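Query structure, 242 tokens:
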């Protein structure tokens, strides 16, 4: 029986994923390269709570050393926490900026950026075969939200057709149309999730109705044209600064 050579053994070993600190460093570098002002926002996010903690330590807490130390520790911990929050937001924005304008970018937001209250697929429900402009569908308590990806001229026909289908299948459920694309009044990709979470309608539906409406609409099927699934924004590498 032939034995595996060292070369074969090493090639079959899966590559080890980078550690948590290395991943954070990669995210930090990606964000810094994409946005030159990001580092100042992160420094401010860490420094402000630390300065407040020091100020409280030398004013309110100066009566005892323990109080001073506690105020400083709380300030540092709050600074680290706020730094992580700001880094996450800026990194998400930088990642989305790398895929904005690509087919499937809205699907990436649906996959990783929406709250659990939404039921959505990273695959479009309608696609313009020539321009690859697409329409995506999400169902939540505000009703049905159709998100167009591409210019308004390329998506106007397919989104109107999709609205008619949805209205026929789910009469009485509110339909909202949002646009992501190059048009001046379109929503930037990194703001899509927050914009959807702000959608409000007079006739909000219940959680059980959300599931029922989503299942009913799924019976319509999805477009089978070869368009990429939502790109994972956290796996996009930023290009070199120009």
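Result returned for the query:
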């Amino acid at each position: 029986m032939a034995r595996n050579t060292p070369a074969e053994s090493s090639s079959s070993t899966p590559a080890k994923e980078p550690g948590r600190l290395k991943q954070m460093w990669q995210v930090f570098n990606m964000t810094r390269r994409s946005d030159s002002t990001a580092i100042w926002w992160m420094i401010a996010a860490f420094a402000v709570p630390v300065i407040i903690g020091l100020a409280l330590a030398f004013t309110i807490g100066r009566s005892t050393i323990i109080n001073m130390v506690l105020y400083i520790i709380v300030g540092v911990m709050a600074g680290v926490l706020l730094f992580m929050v700001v880094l996450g937001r800026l990194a998400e924005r930088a990642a989305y900026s790398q895929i904005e304008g690509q087919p499937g970018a809205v699907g990436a937001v649906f996959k990783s950026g929406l709250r659990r209250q939404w039921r959505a697929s990273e695959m479009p429900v309608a696609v313009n075969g020539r321009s690859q402009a697409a329409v995506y569908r999400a169902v939540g308590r505000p009703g049905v939200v159709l998100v167009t990806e591409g210019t308004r001229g390329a998506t106007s026909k397919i989104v109107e057709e999709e609205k008619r289908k949805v209205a026929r299948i789910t009469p009485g459920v509110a339909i909202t149309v949002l646009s992501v694309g190059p048009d001046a009044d379109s929503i930037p990709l990194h703001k899509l999730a927050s914009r959807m979470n702000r959608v409000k309608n007079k006739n909000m539906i219940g959680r059980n109705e959300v599931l029922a409406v989503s299942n009913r609409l799924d019976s319509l099927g999805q477009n089978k044209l070869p368009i990429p699934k939502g790109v994972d924004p956290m796996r996009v590498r930023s290009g070199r600064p120009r």
